[in-house]
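Support reply, case 0932

Customer input (verbatim):
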Amino acid sequence: MKVAVFGATGVVGLSAIHHFVSQPETEVIAVSRRDLDVANVTHVPLDLRDTAACADVLGSAPFAGTTHVVFAALQEATDLAAGWRDPELMRLNLHMFENALLPLSRRPNASLRHVSLLQGAKAYGFHLGRTPLPAKESAARDDHQNFYFLQEDSLRSLSQECGWGWTILRPQVVFGGSIGSPMNLIPAIGVYAALERAAGRALSWPGGPPSVQEAVDADLLARVLGWAATAPAAAGQIFNVTNGDVYCWRDVWPAVADMFAMDCGEPVPARLAEAMPPRSGEWEAVVDRHRLVAPRDMATYVGGSWAYADILFRPGGARSAPVLLSTVKLRQAGFGECIDTEQMLRRWIGRLQRAGLLPRA
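Our regenerated output:
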């Protein structure tokens, strides 16, 4: 197996390359704009917005014999939520997808066998206030514009033209080890906790009223990607993916505090996208004091995830309806792994602490 992972430095892509490179007789090519240094992985820097560069690079020798693709690349807007409704951004994400797939599919003696494409809960219209409970893959396509659907239609068409298989995965909120991502809460939560501890305060929950949510461990999602690459039951199918449990932020927040040896304070709702950037100097001081290897520039470290945290934490918002995906189809197809979400939070925070990316307890 030779796997090309597009978006390799993102929250999904990073876990995917670590999973695939751990498998026997598997070669991994990581494609991203940002630098990446992972043992036994070939990194190819590439801007998927550049059609000519994609044709040249993906037609070159390193990609010869590619059998599998994981497409986890994504272009988000500065205003995260507004970007989800932007037709131009939708077309750009389709453009990036086709720039990746067309050269690989149409190479002489093309060897591509399977493509995995990432979508998400927005396919069901949750970002528009629609709340089917639970959301199922068998539902009719929700009537709204979404780059997910543009990419999916292109995927189906190319599959018929070129003869390779495909699987689409729809994870809930993904938690992982990437930094500088637009949608990864682990660095955001970690920086918030570190600054509150440095200021001598308890760790207060900064969000709004309790709501039931689901999550996905990026490593669990990577194992689903590994399964989908070869499982006959995954061919031509769409699967929701979650950890397998539900949680409420206020109830798992003490576990976050415990990872930093902090007490939980009374809830103090705050819009982190507004409150945290002015504290960048405090983060620099934390990095220096604890001799962290994390970027001193807080924006480089957290990326756009402050805004993402506000969307999910809902500070000042009303109680929201649950956003729940059915994972019965995935389990019946043969993938039955699960993970406790509180344990997942502890594990990812602990990983970043041991790597020197967050201060230890």
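We compared this against your earlier run and they match. Two observations from our side: Residues 87-105 form the longest helix (19 residues). The radius of gyration is 20 Å. Please reopen the case if you see a mismatch on your end.
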